[in-house]
Amino acid sequence: MARLPVPILVTVTGEGGSGGALAIAVGDRVNILENSFYSVISPEGCATIVWRDSTKAETAATVMKITAKDLKEFGIVDEIVPEPEGGAHTDHEAAASFLDEILNRQLIALTHHSVKELLEARYDKFRKMGQYFDFVSR
C-alpha cells in the first residue's frame, strides 16, 4: 500500500488493532471516529503480556493511550471524526455526513500533490510514527 500512486484515506471505526492497525497506518490521512480506539494489541492482550492478568485490561487501555484524543495528540491519527449523540451506531446517516465532509476535504487537498510528493510524504509520515521525545529543560 505504501507505494500506491493514489491518495490513501483511512478511517478507524470501532476498534482498529493488531496487523490491520499497521496496514492502515500507511494512509496519507488516518481518521478515527471519536469513540473508537486504535492500537497494535488489544488491552486484554497487553495486560496478559505485561501483568500476566487479562483482567487488568482497563489499566492497560489507560496506559496504552489508545483513545482518539490521545492518538491525535501523539500524531498517530490526523483527524477525529465527530459522532452523533449516543455514537455513530445510533444514527448512521449523521455519522456518514460527518465523515463525508472530512473525506472530501482531505481528498481534494491530497489531489493537488504529485505522485512523487504523495509517496515521499507518506514515507516520512510512516517513519516518524511512534517517535516520542520528552525534552526536559535544564
Summarize the structure.
The protein contains six helices and five strands. With 138 residues, the chain is of the alpha/beta class.
Can you characterise this structure?
- The protein is α/β, with parallel strands linked by helices and 138 residues long.
- Helix content is 45%, strand content 13%.
- The protein has a 3-stranded parallel beta sheet with strand order 1-3-5. A two-stranded parallel ribbon has the order 2-4.
- Helix 2 (43-51) packs across helix 3.
- It is globular and about 50 Å long.
- The model has no long low-confidence stretch (mean pLDDT 90).
Span from first to last CA? 43 Å
Order of helices and strands: EEHEEHHHEHH
Globally, the shape reads globular
Number of β-strand runs: 5
Biggest pleated sheet: 3 strands, parallel
What gyration radius follows from the Cα positions, in whole Å? 17 Å
Strand content range = 5-15%
**Which structural class fits the helix and strand makeup?**
alpha/beta
Spatial ordering of strands, largest sheet: 1-3-5
Count of alpha/pi helices: 6
Mean pLDDT: 90
Low-pLDDT sequence parts: none
Helix content: 40-55%
Helices and strands, with pairings:
Layout lengths: L8 E4 L2 E3 L1 H6 L4 E5 L3 E3 L3 H9 L5 H8 L3 H6 L5 E3 L10 H19 L4 H14 L10
Parallel strand pairs: 1-3, 2-4, 3-5
